[in-house]
Amino acid sequence: MEMVNITIDGIKTQVPSGTTVLEAAKSLNIDIPTLCYLKGLNAVGACRVCVVEVQGARSLQASCVLPAAEGMVVKTASPKVRDARKGIMELILARHERECLTCSRSLSCELQKLAEEMGVGEIPFESSELHYTVDETSTSIVRDQNKCILCGRCISVCKNTQGVGAIDFARRGVKTTVTTTYDKSLDDVKCISCGQCIKICPVGALREKDDTEKVWNAISNENLHVVVQTAPAVRVALGEEFGMPVGTNVEGKMIAALKRLGFDKVFDTNFSADLTILEEGTELLGRINNGGKLPLITSCSPGWIKFCEHNHHDFIENLSSCKSPQQMFGAVAKSYYAEKAGIDPKNIFVVSIMPCTAKKYEASREELSVDGLQDVDAVLTTRELAKMIKQARINFPAIEDESYDTILGDSTGAGVIFGTTGGVMEAALRTVADILTGQDLKEIEYTAVRGLEGIKEATVRIKDMDVKVAVVHGTANADRLLEKIRNGEANYHFVEVMGCPGGCINGGGQPIIMDKEKTDEVKMLRAQGLYNIDKSRKRRKSHENPEVKALYEEYMEKPNSHKAHHILHTHYTKREKV
């Protein structure tokens, strides 16, 4: 490998040819500020905040796109550089709507943080006269162009990581903006509501639709019985909002806080994750034994479902007819639970705490209802729940642990690992293996489907059958896998797809990761938190869940029964191909 010699702030070093000055500086623990740059995703030199002074160069250079050259001498904090960066920040802020106190990203805003670090005080430039209407039509995402700093991060993640391309740059000069096709609302284009754009945005130009007030109103309504469910990935991320280490399991504290907030019952989405495995596993075996459409593709990620409905009409029949665990829970709460508790289903208000902004969209889908009642009435992200806990002045780290309520609160380790990529597949294999062999197998950790590799493939020998499976996360990766299947290059029985990179642990509603270069590390720590919970459980297979067993014995007879199909299954829609 060819090496080049470079001097940065008086420190001499060697770096591989092709290394940028920004990366070379990082290798020396020299911090150069960035806004638009994201390693491996967005390196365009647009914001110019990362400029450095290069000896012999006529002007300052953007270090994120400047290759290190032999003999190069660089200064990263000279008076010229500091003045330029401050001036650049002032220009950016002149265009930016500065409502910091009321902004959803206050105290977690990269622009705000840099402005403070650079000592930016008064803005010497007149504010932009351009004003954009805030797009609040989406059920999941609010788009506020008045706060956009044109860094292009959202465009890159939408186009390259997710393969969607719902937004892009438009117009020129001072009128340049990030928008949708023909300036339509997000609800009218191919946006899949995954929220990865929210997580990647350095400011508050993108945020989730805030439903906290709707939930507060429901809790205070004496005519409503308000129940709440918590998704697997929330319990290993919520603590970050209160300064706790990444991956900390705060399940007990989360339950206690929800009870303190006033919910009538606190239940667990892990219960319905176990239920999903029974329904989906039975569906898989039915398709294998009866010549059904294969591969069976999971349907628990609403962003992925919408992506498929738009782009892959030929695979819609491959999708499992099972509702997601969120929707199954709501449907069961308004049928089985309502009957057991003696409550009119119309008076049950179901709230979901989810790591995913697309779950807001999912809950609004007309086909996800039973007998005219929507399965789920309101969805809050992990961030929104943290907001409510803070509004209630609850000392979250100090609160004593409590337990879930019964009937819909028990779960197995298999239900827990739904929150990370590969978890649905592993949970399904644990149950399918026991069914096929008729045994209580002890080897239940299918590590081949774990990890952050974009596409994972495995062949699992169960009894006398080779079960071929694939796991994919991030919809751009799903695109690639489906093309392989379509072309006959790959053949599977079962495919798990998660819309977000890493699965729910990295959902669009999870806590914002300020240091974006630690994103993979955060994903792994959150995933490990879930695997640790799984290992600690006495029951680790979905079909062992006693509350799920009771549901079938008392109400639904068996998985995939007529009643189960009526309550727990759905259909999908061919949307405009884009």
Structure at a glance:
34% of the residues lie in helices and 14% in strands. By secondary structure, the chain is of the alpha/beta class. The strands form 6 sheets. Strands 2-1-5-3-4 form a 5-stranded mixed β-sheet, sandwiched between helices. A 4-stranded parallel β-sheet has the order 11-10-13-16, sandwiched between helices. A 4-stranded mixed β-sheet has the order 12-19-18-17, with helices on both faces.
Textual characterization of the structure:
It is a single chain. With 578 residues, this protein is an alpha/beta fold. It is built from 18 helices and 19 strands. The protein has helices at 21-27, 79-95, 110-117, 153-161, 196-200, 212-220, 251-261, 269-290, 302-311, 325-341, 358-364, 382-391, 413-416, 423-437, 475-486, 519-536, 546-556, 562-568, and strands spanning 3-8, 11-16, 51-54, 61-62, 72-75, 141-143, 168-170, 177-179, 206-208, 225-230, 265-268, 296-297, 348-354, 369-370, 373-374, 378-381, 455-462, 465-473, 494-498. The strands form six sheets. Strands 2-1-5-3-4 form a five-stranded mixed β-sheet, sandwiched between helices. Strands 11-10-13-16 form a four-stranded parallel β-sheet, with helices on both faces. Strands 12-19-18-17 form a four-stranded mixed β-sheet, sandwiched between helices. The longest helix has 22 residues, at 269-290. The protein is globular. The model has no long low-confidence stretch (mean pLDDT 96).
**CATH architecture descriptor of the largest domain:** 3-Layer(aba) Sandwich
Overall structural class, as computed from helix and strand content, comes to alpha/beta
CATH topology of the largest domain: Rossmann fold
What characteristic shape results from the CA principal axes?
globular
Mean pLDDT across residues: 96
- Helical run tally: 18
| Strand order within the widest beta sheet | 2-1-5-3-4
How many angstroms separate the termini?
Answer: 43 Å
> Which range does the strand content fall in?
5-15%
* Unreliably modeled segments: none
Q: Kindly provide the radius of gyration, computed on alpha-carbon positions and rounded to a whole number of angstroms.
A: 25 Å
Residues in helix, %: 25-40%
Count every beta strand, where a strand is a DSSP E run of 2 or more residues: 19
Task: Give the C-level CATH assignment of the largest domain.
Answer: Alpha Beta
User: What is the total number of structural domains?
Assistant: 3
Largest sheet, if any? Answer: 5 strands, mixed
